[in-house]
Amino acid sequence: MGDTLEFSDIYQEVKGSWNDGRLRFGRQSVVYKSSKTGKVDSIPAAELSQAQWRRVCLGQGIKLTTSTGHIYKYDGFRDTDFEKISEYFKAHYKVELSEKELCVKGWNWGTTKFSGPLLSFEVSDSPAFEIPLASVSQCATGKNEVTLEFHQNDEAEVSLMEVRFYVPPGDTATTEEGPEPVEVFRDRVLSKADVIQATGDAVCIFKELQCLTPRGRYDIRIYPSFLHLHGKTFDYKIPYTTVLRLFLLPHKDQRQMFFMISLDPPIKQGQTRYHFLILLFSKEEDLSLSLNMTEEEVEKRYGGKLSKNMSGSLYEMVGRVMKALVNKKITVPGNFLGHSGTQCITCSYKASSGLLYPLERGFVYIHKPPVHLRFEEVSCVNFARGTTTTRSFDFEIETKQGTQFTFSSIEREEYGKLFDFVTAKKLSIKNRGFKEVNISPDSDEDQHDAYLERMKEEGKIREEANDSDDSDGESGEYDSKASASDSSAEGGDSDREKKKRPAKKAKVVKERKPRKKKPKDSGAPKRPMSAYFLWLNASRESIKAEHPGISITEISKRAGEMWRELGKEQKVEWDGKAEEAKKNYEVAMREYRESGGGSSAPSKKYFCTCFFQHLHKVLCCCSGIDLHFSHQSTFISRRQSASPS
């Protein structure tokens, strides 16, 4: 058995929706990486305490319990995977993979057990369903009822809104001495539920920070477990568990900094979802910060990452505090430098202008709307010429899910830098090797354009035709202007400029000649019918008899349906008749051609006509005399010749 076991297409349930990813069992840890968000869950092997194999909706699933009280569930395994996973757990984790049956009786009366962050409803000692308490948003009590409300997931097709539990009242003696069973139930739910309550003082407060998404100025209050944005109109509470990534990116003007926070799930305001929180800072703005904690508490909780009193640039203070509380690294630009010497590229996405940052592991666009594309989810990229001018180009990114992001209006000088970056990251370039995509800054502005050249040639031809047709009229017009300018000496500069302008030339519209249809040979044998039409001719009367008064179009429609329903054995008869008709047609056509009919060569009558027409043109051009010929077998001219010869 190898050191690792890997499984693809393994699903993890997140608030009612299934997210697929890859699961790897290693000697040191169990790692799951989501394909959608790229988030990585790592479970140290030393913390694994229990493992269960259960039949679930997506095949077989594994439930892992750690010594710290966390529970992880992964679904999508096959029945044959049980043996090798069980052996691997025994050999490397010293944990037995036990099989657990779920209750499917459908009973609604049972017992509830709180196991870490899970509420399990059991019937006859078998779990009927489990509720992750982290998904609970509110818990309310009635007389003998407890109501649980849940966080909603926009990506789930069906969402569970609430669950109500009936809790039987306790004995009178018990209730007099202690709290009611309903209150005990509620307190145990709230101890593990994801209900954000601003209890106690904030660690620190940042006043009036400029926020681009959502737009406005907010006071940011930093609490130990969540972030509170307080604005004039809206308030947002963001748990640190929803933060995926942190970005610190310089503005192109080198005077400002962007601090971007990636969120999953996003914060909501009505029907609007904000997947990114973007703050804008000035580099010149400084701050002296004092945490609302003692030095011993700061050292114990954050282990030297923060100190009680700090000072520096405002964006550095915000980044340092967020990095310590969220416990995630801050992503900064890599080695990419654009044509202007900055680490970003000016471009447009949809209808807004913004900045595109090529990072070490993905692309980030700021700011409307913000976009983050990891290299792992990129299928290919494409360089396309700009639609309005040759001074810019478009950069297209296509993801593995089929979504395309087009960043347009990128300066042509950025092409070389961006192309080298994409090549170095080993991303697939869709149009590599095509000569028509010529957007290099070394190329001339007047580069070859086949369509433009063709339009120029057609314009020259039209101008020459206009000159030849209107030569007499134009010369008379210019002579009249010249005489008028000589006679009048008080015209001034404006009159002279008007007289110098040539008259606009009328467009020449060429008449299209009607196409000549090839004459049909009435004496040739008729083409054979296909198997379908042979069957239709034989079945038409029966269709009319079954459907009296049916129209012609309905007959064709009904016949098509009947023909499709026929089996291959029934169609063999009509295929044979069609093949026989085709052979008879070929024999008849051969005999017809041998008898002189349907010859593809031009007839003598047509040949003579063409010959005399061509001879007429040549003689007229050479002698300048209008000659008219007549031929008995071709045509008879009704005009008299200009010369007796």
UniProtKB/TrEMBL annotation:
Q: Does the keyword DNA repair apply?
A: yes
- Which GO terms fall under biological process for this protein? DNA repair; DNA replication; regulation of chromatin organization
Q: Which residues bind DNA?
A: 525-593
Q: Which Pfam families match?
A: HMG_box (PF00505), PH1_SSRP1-like (PF21103), POB3_N (PF17292), Rttp106-like_middle (PF08512), SSrecog (PF03531)
Q: Which Gene3D superfamilies match?
A: 2.30.29.150, High mobility group box domain (1.10.30.10), Pleckstrin-homology domain (PH domain)/Phosphotyrosine-binding domain (PTB) (2.30.29.30), Structure-specific recognition protein (SSRP1) (2.30.29.220)
Q: Is Protein biosynthesis one of the keywords?
A: no
**Domain of life assignment:** Eukaryota
Basic and acidic residues composition bias: residue spans = 456-465
InterPro entries named among the record's database cross-references: HMG_box_dom, HMG_box_dom_sf, PH-like_dom_sf, RTT106/SPT16-like_middle_dom, RTT106/SSRP1_HistChap/FACT, SSRP1-like_PH1, SSRP1/POB3, SSRP1/POB3_N
* Domain HMG box stretches: 525-593
Entry keyword set: Chromosome, DNA damage, DNA repair, DNA replication, DNA-binding, Nucleus, Transcription, Transcription regulation
For molecular function, the Gene Ontology terms on record are: DNA binding; histone binding; nucleosome binding
Q: Where is the composition biased (Basic residues)?
A: 498-519
Where is there biased composition of kind Acidic residues?
A: 466-477
Composition bias (Low complexity) maps to 481-491
Q: Which GO terms describe its cellular component?
A: FACT complex; nucleolus
Q: Where are the transmembrane segments?
A: none
Q: Where in the cell is it found?
A: Nucleus, Nucleolus; Nucleus; Chromosome
Positions of region (Disordered):
456-526
Known function: Component of the FACT complex, a general chromatin factor that acts to reorganize nucleosomes. The FACT complex is involved in multiple processes that require DNA as a template such as mRNA elongation, DNA replication and DNA repair. During transcription elongation the FACT complex acts as a histone chaperone that both destabilizes and restores nucleosomal structure.
Q: Which family does it belong to?
A: Belongs to the SSRP1 family.
Q: What is the designated name of this protein?
A: FACT complex subunit SSRP1
Q: Taxonomy-wise, where does this protein's organism fall, top ranks first?
A: Eukaryota, Metazoa, Chordata, Craniata, Vertebrata
